[in-house]
Amino acid sequence: MKVHFSNVDFQSRSGPNSFAGRLALCLQKRGYEFVGPDGDYETFLAFIEPSSHPRPGARFLQRLDGIWFSPEEFHTKNRGIRWTYDNCHYVVWQTQFDKNMTSHHWGDRAGTIIANGIDLNTARAIDENLNRLRSTYDVMFACSSNWHGQKRLKENTELFLKYELENPDKKCCLVVMGNNPDHVVKKDNIIYTGNLPHELCLQVFYVSDWMIHLAWLDHCPNVVVEALSQNCPVICSSSGGPKEIVRSSGVIVPETEEYDYRLTDYTSPPKLDLSNIVLPDTIEVDHRHLDIEIVADKYDKVLRGKWD
Predict the structure, then answer these.
(1) Could you read off the pLDDT of 54-63 as tens digits, one per residue?
(2) Closest CA to 183 of 221, 219, 225, 212
(3) Do 51 and 6 contact (CB within 8 A), yes or no?
(4) Is 88 within a domain?
(5) Same domain for 81 and 171?
(6) What is the pLDDT of the chain when averaged over all its residues?
(7) Rounded CA gap, 217 and 93, in Å?
(8) Which of 30, 148, 213, 246: CA 20 to 30 A from 219?
(9) Which class for 284: exposed (0-12), middle (13-18), buried (19 or more C-beta within 10 A)?
(10) Is 78 found in the same domain as 173?
(11) Residue 275: CB partners within 8 Å, gap ≥ 6?
């Protein structure tokens, strides 16, 4: 079967592009052939919005990982996404949160929910510095993002410091991965790495005891999927889509304000109450729903037009 992935750069390591690459490899094993925008494809899958128009007669699908929902950006940045939503035959949302958001603002469409998927083979901590770090500390936390207000680095750090204060018998560290940290605490056991290669990020999650992702109204963050793939439990907030990915494989921190899908300045999230959060000593991670092979099976049905 011939298919075209529109608005995808297979050389990029960004979230949607990384997932597209993993999905394409699985589908190729199932006999799929990927062609360019001028190819004789049966199905045209636009990642968020297309970079070209689908050819007449092809199935036109949209993979939608959220919309812009601040008042200033809602109309301008969503123009192409809204056109795709209105004109495609079928929508694939990443989370129920994303489906609820688009349905609230733009009405219902035929579609289904398929979360991100990943190879569940665990990394091995072969980096010498990382091995040394792991052997130094009893409990290791990690977080990762391109940091800005919505990602709540300050609250991530506060939760780590709270745990450290309440467990004086344990040596703890926090590894902060990603660019532009907007809250920096000068402590030897809080380590800011900047951007790391993908494989090294997986290794960090593999050796960590907890991944913290307290972002407000996030969609389906790849870093959460990656952490769970390495059997690292995740601490997330109750807003947005991450809790649908984490399920019982972590701790979900309640928001102090319930979100009703209104347009909002999501760079200024409400304050979280972390005072009653207690982390268990151990937690079992169940990441089977994130297996890229299972996710590819779901996409296979959708791409062939086998819709409910």
Answers:
(1) 999 999 999 9
(2) 212
(3) yes
(4) yes
(5) no
(6) 96
(7) 15
(8) 30
(9) exposed
(10) no
(11) none
Q: How far apart are CA 186 and CA 55, in angstroms?
A: 55
Q: Structural domain tally of the chain? A: 2
Give yes or no: residues 50 and 92 share one domain. Answer: yes
Tens of pLDDT along 209-229? 999 999 999 999 999 999 999
Q: Measured between alpha carbons, how far is 123 from 125 in angstroms, rounded to an integer?
A: 7
146 and 269 in a common domain:
yes
The C-alpha angle with vertex 213 and arms to 205 and 77, in degrees rounded to 5, equals 115
Pairing of strands 139-144, 234-237: unpaired
Q: What's this model's pTM, rounded to 2 decimal places?
A: 0.95
CATH number (domain holding residue 256): 3.40.50.2000
How far CA 147 is from CA of 34, 142, 178, 244, in Å, comes to: 34, 14, 7, 22
Q: Is residue 122 part of a domain?
A: no
pLDDT in tens, 227-269: 999 999 999 999 999 999 999 999 999 999 999 999 999 989 9
pLDDT at 142 over 90: yes
Q: What Å distances lie between residue 266 and 151, 225, 237, CA to CA?
A: 9, 22, 14
Residues 137 and 104 in one domain: no
Residue 63 host element (H or E): strand 59-64
Tokens matching residue 156:
């991530």
- In angstroms, the CA 49 to CA 234 distance is 30
CA distance 167 to 13: 37
* Token pair listed for 290: 């994130």
Range of the domain at 155: 128-287
φ/ψ of 6, rounded to 5, equals -95, 145
